[in-house]
Amino acid sequence: MSSRVVLLSLFFILYWLPFADVGAAQQSSEKALREQYDLQEGKRLYGEYCRFCHGEQGNGHAFNVTPPPADLTSPAVQRKSDIELTQTIHEGERGTAMGSWKWALSKEEKQHVLLYIRWLAQSRQPVSAPSP
Ligand code: HEC
C-alpha cells in the first residue's frame, strides 16, 4: 500500500468519525425517549385500570376485599419474573378480586403497565432504611 492510500484512508476515517458519533448519540436519545413514552403510557393505563385496587403508589390495599389487593412494589412481587407477572395480569387470579385483563389490555399495554409497576417499586423508599 502506498503511503498516499494510507493517508487518504486516514483522512476519510477522521472525516467521518464525528458523524458516526452523532448517529450513536441520536439513537440512544431516541431509545430514552421511547422508554419515557412507554412509561407514561403505563402510568396512564395503571391509573385507569389498576389504581382503584392497588393504590396510587402501587402498594395495594386501596380497595377493601379479601384477599387484599397485592402490594405490587413489595419484594415478594418484584422477585417474580416479567413472564409470571404478565401471566397474572393476563389471566387474573381465581377466587380473588384480581380479574383477567386479557380483553382490556393488548400485549404492548401489559408490557407498559408492568414497566410502570417496576418503576413504582424502584422509586419506593425502603421502609426499613436505617436512619442516619
Ligand atoms: C378489583 C380490584 C383489582 C383491580 C382493579 C386490579 N387488581 Fe391486581 N390484584 C387484586 C387482588 C385482590 C390481588 C391479590 C390476589 C391474591 O392475593 O392472590 C391482585 C394481584 C395482582 C398481581 C399479582 C401479585 C403477585 O403476588 O404475584 C398483579 C401483578 C396485579 N394484581 C396487577 C394488576 C394490574 C396490572 C392491574 C390493572 C391492569 C390490576 N392488578 C387491577 C385486585 C385488583
SSE layout:
Layout: H1 3-49, H2 51-54, H3 75-78, H4 82-91, H5 107-123
The site of heme C has 22 residues, from helix 2 and helix 4.
Using the coordinates shown, work out and report the CATH topology of the domain at 38-123.
Cytochrome Bc1 Complex, Chain D, domain 2
In the CATH hierarchy, the architecture of the domain at 38-123 is Orthogonal Bundle
Please state the overall shape, judged from the principal axes of the Cα atoms.
elongated
* Strand proportion: under 5%
- Strand and helix order: HHHHH
CATH classification class of the domain at 38-123: Mainly Alpha
The description of the largest β-sheet is: none
Structural class of the secondary elements?
Answer: mainly alpha
Radius of gyration in whole Å, from Cα? 23 Å
- Relevant CATH superfamily of the domain at 38-123: Cytochrome c-like domain
| Mean pLDDT rating | 90
Number of helices: 5
Instruction: Give a count of the beta strands, DSSP E runs of length 2 or more.
Output: 0
Bound ligand species: heme C
Helix content: 55-70%
